[in-house]
Each structure stands twice: as structure tokens, then as C-alpha cells.
Amino acid sequence: MNKFVLSLLVCITMGSSFNVFAKKACQDPSTMVPFGQVMNPAFVKKFKKCPVTTEAEFVTFGVLPGVPIPGKMKKKIIIQAVQPGTLTNNTLMPGYLVGLPKKLSDQVFNLKKGQKIKLRGVTYQWGLTAFAAAMSGHHNTLHYFLASSVEVIE
Q1: pTM for this one?
Q2: Does the domain spanning 24-153 belong to CATH 2.40.50.140?
Q3: pLDDT tens across 107-132, in order?
Q4: What is the CA radius of gyration of the chain?
């Protein structure tokens, strides 16, 4: 047997024994994670492929003109939300962007500013071109939350 093939087989066998090639397991999707953590740039990649449940405060619908919207969000209902208890009167960018499926429109379009909502979904990081970042006044990346479900918390 060729030495290369033998070495490769040994590496694969040892790697699978030590879980070197194992994918990192996601937590249970019902695990509650603070919205601020979910949207923090340090955690965006952690929650990109691992659905989580989070609570947020509804701010408003849509985005200001000039704020770029990635393709994954173009056919979504876009709302802005913040970590509960942090709502301000910032008119430039009052909250983080959350994309919701159109099928949830009946639940979403009755929301009032400050209402608490429970979201389940994943984060999404979108890289902007230098031109788009300069034109929109944002950094080189925008962080979004793509929700698969929303529930109003009474």
C-alpha cells in the first residue's frame, strides 16, 4: 500500500476518533439568548447556522432610505427591534433589522412601538462594498436577524 494512502487512512481514523472533523453542535433552538448577544458582531457567526430563540422590543417597520438591503431580506417583512429595555428615540437607526416571512404579516402589522416579541431564527452578516458603506454611513458589514417565527409577548 502506498505510504501516502496509509498515512491518510491513519489521519482519518485518528481524526474521527478525536472528533477533529465533527461539526460543532448547535444548542436547542428553543434556548433563550439575549437579543443583544444574538446581534453582537462577536456572536454573529455562532448563530448564523444555529437557530435560537430571543426576546426583543419592536421599534418600527422597514428601513430608512439609503440603507442597503441584502437579497435574503428583499422579500421579507422588515422590522427593527432592540434588546428589551434599551429603546431610545434615535431616528437614524433605531434598531437592528429583522426579516420575517410574509406569511407572518397578520401577526406583525399590528405591533406597536415598545411591544415585546419572541423571535426564533438565525443571524446573517452581510458584507458591504466600500462605496455602499460610505453612502449608507454604516460599517463594512451589517448584521440582520432572519426570523422564522414571531410571537407577541403580553
Answers
A1: 0.73
A2: yes
A3: 899 999 999 999 999 988 776 544 44
A4: 20
